Amino acid sequence: MTNPTATDFGHSYIRRTLDTLIKPPKTVSRPLPMTLNRVRMPIEAMAVLIHQITGEQVRYVLGAECRTEQVWVKRDIWHVPNASMCLIAGDKHCLIEKHWARADFEATLFPPTLGAQPERQLIDPHEAFAGFAVDMAQVRAIELNGTDAIMGALAGRGTVIARTEYAAGGYAITLEYPVKTSNYSEREHYYQVDTGPILFPEVAGIESKDTPPIMACRLAYVAHNDPKWAEFLVCVPTPVADNLKVHHYSQSVRVEDVRNRMFSVV
What we know:
- By secondary structure, this protein is mainly beta.
- It starts with a strand and ends with a strand.
- The protein has helices at residues 125-128, 147-154, and strands at 5-7, 13-19, 36-51, 57-63, 66-67, 84-89, 94-99, 107-108, 116-117, 120-123, 131-135, 138-143, 160-168, 171-178, 182-185, 190-201, 217-224, 229-241, 244-256, 259-265.
- The longest helix has 8 residues, at 147-154.
- Strands 1, 2, 3, 4, 5, 6, 7, 10, 11, 12, 13, 14 and 20 form a 13-stranded antiparallel β-sheet that branches. Strands 15-16-17-18-19 form a 5-stranded antiparallel β-sheet. The chain has a two-stranded antiparallel sheet with strand order 8-9.
- The protein has 2 helices and 20 strands.
- The protein is 5% helix and 53% strand.
- Strand 15 (182-185) and strand 16 (190-201) form a beta hairpin.
- The protein folds into 2 domains: 5-135, no CATH class; 138-265, no CATH class.
């Protein structure tokens, strides 16, 4: 019997190209000092959603977080005010997600005639970029069946990948992510995953059939110590004072009837 495969997150990237000689930029807030800029962004996690009636499938990946910057300058690289930035990427839609010091802040795109850049800018990547690809690598893996096998893998140096599968909002959902942080005890015979960021699709909140499912994807952390449930800590605008919100992992969501699977990379 052949081994299954898992995503090789250590060698998977979102690649995008800005080329002002081909397309004017639509996602930047400062003038560019170059005509060509290529970006390689590591992939942190993946979510696959299959509509249970139509069978339509979409795949979204989460790019690693960076900070807003000016590229190819000698000084003053960091944008002020600065924001964290990540890309949630699919074949047809992408979300550029930026979090400033406070929620509900908007930057101005360049040129200013493009208007404001919201915290979650929805784009067609093939229209916005001169080049775009989700470069996913696969690796052979062994499924870890039972607590002893999981603890044995966690005690070693190898990569462990998890999948959380469940149904919600009319979709069959598979989340795949590397297990970065974990807890275990051979004495009490338990393990616990505590890892992220991953993508958590809040599909129940999709407003209409015309809303792309990517709009339901939120950044989250995931924890579980049992194959049948998972708890997510979701990043949402969080009140901290009167009329002031910040982006924080503050919304706890428990999902029952899941299937948590763990894999050791061969």
